[in-house]
Every structure is written in structure tokens, then in C-alpha cells.
Amino acid sequence: STLVVTGSVRMQGASGNLLLLRSSDSGTRWRITPPVTKPISFVNVQDSFNTSPSDINPANSVDNGNNVRWFPARTGPLKGAIIFVD
User: Fold this and answer.
1) Which residues have C-beta within 8 Å of that of residue 82, sequence separation ≥ 6?
2) pLDDT digit string, tens, across residues 11-48
3) How many structural domains compose the chain?
4) Is 73 a member of any domain?
5) What is the C-alpha to C-alpha distance for residues 61 and 59, in angstroms, rounded to an integer?
6) Over the range 15-54, which residues count as b (16 or more CB within 10 Å of their CB) and which as e?
7) Is 41 contained in some domain?
8) 21 to each of 42, 48, 82, 84, how far by Cα in Å?
9) Whole-Å CA distances, 39 to 3, 33, 43, 77
């Protein structure tokens, strides 16, 4: 099924107590159509398909796998990486 957000919704857990966003059928993606503004943070997401053309990038959150259009690829150096400049 698809979760369509037409008004306001706050999907927010807390540090050390992430809000789990899961399918009721493990491995089967649940769908979300969020509004343009997405106040989502402190979540742990698994098996989700974001139907919006924009990625959802929730702060302080965990990508637990099998998600589409969540957690866009990050660019830049990795934490702890050594960068050599010539």
C-alpha cells in the first residue's frame, strides 16, 4: 500500500530511540508520497519506496536497506579518509 501525506506529519524519533519505518511484510516495499517539505529525522527505514521525484534525506537516521529514493548518495571524503593533494 502507499502512504500518502496530504497534510502535516512529523516522522521523528529521538537520539537512541529511532522511529522504525517498516513494511508489515518483510522484503516487500511500502510506499510513501511525502509533501514537498519532509520534516523526517531520527528514523530507521527499511523496505520503502519513495514515490516522490525528490530523495528523502532524513537527518540522524539509518538506512536499513531495500529503500528507493531515500538517503541520496553522499559525495565527498569518507570519515577517516586520508586525502592527498599534490
Assistant:
1) none
2) 899 999 999 999 989 999 999 887 766 678 999 999 99
3) 1
4) no
5) 5
6) eeebbebebeeeeeebebebeeebebbbbebbbbbbeeee
7) yes
8) 11, 8, 35, 40
9) 15, 13, 11, 26
Binned at pLDDT 50, 70 and 90, residue 79 comes out as: low
Which residues span the domain enclosing 32? 2-63
Which position has the grid cell 593533494?
A: 85
- 69 contacts 56 by C-beta, under 8 angstroms: yes
Whether residue 81 lies inside any domain: the answer is no
Single-letter amino acid code for the residue at 45: V
- Provide the β-strand partners of residue 63: 45
Q: Take residue 43 and report the three cell numbers written for it.
A: 528514523
Average pLDDT, the chain: 83
Contact 70, 76 (CB under 8 A): no
Q: Is residue 27 part of a domain?
A: yes
Q: How many CB atoms lie within 10 A of CB 9?
A: 14
